[in-house]
């Protein structure tokens, strides 16, 4: 059953977020040969349209307005609903990001659509799109189908493989003018209190530190290895509570949920609250002095040792590999 699917692309810090391309790939599956339409909302976003097309969108619609420079649920909802009225899609896909988690339930309610959030996999069987999503803090997975109305899904970053970029692909780029009004929130300025470097939610490699790093200074070896691997640095709640790092780095039930290709846990005991945020990582490496630490139960590889000895050794070895590669 061919479907038209509308995909929300997200621009952040002057570039399209990788989850936008993952959402396009998910939309291709849902569309079953139908049309995938990208959507970009902001004050100056048209220049990113072709990149969405290169990653699989058939065409792109943009909504540009000075009032849409910063995200507000009212403004973006008005823009989205205007495009929806023009396109009348059978499917909608967002990234499961801060924007997606805030806006998608509001839109789903207005459109009376069945929303499946935090999707990690999807397939088509017998004309039905089957969505897989984690439940019970990642301890189990459930499969869902939407039996009636619009298919609306948010996809978790780093779980849906992107399509191969094809710069020879071309498609129509059009714009819709929306009179954005009656905003209940006006954003004057946005200050991001976060560490420099790769976005945790989209990082392919994460070096995470727990109470075992002992201090803010103790995160330096982790940052050095993260830089070598092109990754990001995260932390357990214990490390954040101890003021070793900012809460923006927290991974776990009350922090970020991540699914990198490689997760290296350093000095982290493995409390259930932390595991809820990282247990679905593709490969988990644990470094801890305590051989009985719970983190080893979920690790694919474990190193019993002092992180301040092990991590610098790993850094040197990976540097050698980079030189010879």
From TrEMBL:
Taxonomically, the superkingdom here is Bacteria
Which Gene Ontology terms describe the biological processes this protein takes part in? fatty acid beta-oxidation using acyl-CoA dehydrogenase
**What Pfam families would the database entry show?**
ETF (PF01012), ETF_alpha (PF00766)
Which free-text remark accompanies the cofactor?
A: Binds 1 FAD per dimer.
Q: Which PROSITE patterns match?
A: ETF_ALPHA
Domain Electron transfer flavoprotein alpha/beta-subunit N-terminal: from-to ranges: 5-195
Q: Where does FAD bind?
A: 211, 236-237, 250-254, 267-274, 288
Cofactors needed by this protein, per the record, are:
FAD
Record-linked Gene3D superfamilies: HUPs (3.40.50.620), TPP-binding domain (3.40.50.1220)
* Entry keyword set: Electron transport, FAD, Flavoprotein, Transport
Question: Mind listing the GO molecular function terms for this protein?
Answer: electron transfer activity; flavin adenine dinucleotide binding
Q: Which CDD domains does this UniProt record tie to the protein?
A: ETF_alpha
The UniProt family comment states:
Belongs to the ETF alpha-subunit/FixB family.
In terms of PANTHER family, this protein maps to:
ELECTRON TRANSFER FLAVOPROTEIN ALPHA, ELECTRON TRANSFER FLAVOPROTEIN SUBUNIT ALPHA, MITOCHONDRIAL
Full protein name: Electron transfer flavoprotein subunit alpha
Origin organism is Bacillus thuringiensis
């Amino acid at each position: 059953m061919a479907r038209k699917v509308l995909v929300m692309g997200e621009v952040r810090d002057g570039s399209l977020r990788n989850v936008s391309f993952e959402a396009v790939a998910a939309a291709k599956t849902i569309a079953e040969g139908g049309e995938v339409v990208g959507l970009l909302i902001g004050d100056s976003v048209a220049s990113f349209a072709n990149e969405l097309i290169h990653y699989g969108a058939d065409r792109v619609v943009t909504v540009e307005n000075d009032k849409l420079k910063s995200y507000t649920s009212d403004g973006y909802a008005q823009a989205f609903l205007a495009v929806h009225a023009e396109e009348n899609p059978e499917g909608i896909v967002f990234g499961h990001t801060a924007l997606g988690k805030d806006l998608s339930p509001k839109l789903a309610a207005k459109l009376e659509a069945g929303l499946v959030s935090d999707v990690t996999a999807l397939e088509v069987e017998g004309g039905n799109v089957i969505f897989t999503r984690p439940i019970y803090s990642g301890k189990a997975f459930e499969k869902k189908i939407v039996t009636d109305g619009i298919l609306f899904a948010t996809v978790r970053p780093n779980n849906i493989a992107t399509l191969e970029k094809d710069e020879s692909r071309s498609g129509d780029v059009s714009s819709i003018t929306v009179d954005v009004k009656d905003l209940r929130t006006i954003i004057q300025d946005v200050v991001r209190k976060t560490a420099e470097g790769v976005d945790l939610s989209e990082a392919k490699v994460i070096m995470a530190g727990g109470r075992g790093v002992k201090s803010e200074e103790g995160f330096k070896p982790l940052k050095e290895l993260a830089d070598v691997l092109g990754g990001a640095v995260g932390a357990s709640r214990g490390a954040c509570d101890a003021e070793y790092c900012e809460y923006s780095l927290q991974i776990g039930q009350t922090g970020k949920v991540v699914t990198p290709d490689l997760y290296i846990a350093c000095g982290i005991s493995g409390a259930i609250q932390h595991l809820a945020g990282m247990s679905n990582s593709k490969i988990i490496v644990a470094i801890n002095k305590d051989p009985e630490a719970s983190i080893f139960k979920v690790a694919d590889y474990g190193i019993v040792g002092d992180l301040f000895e092990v991590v610098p050794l790993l850094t040197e070895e990976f540097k050698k590999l980079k030189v010879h590669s």
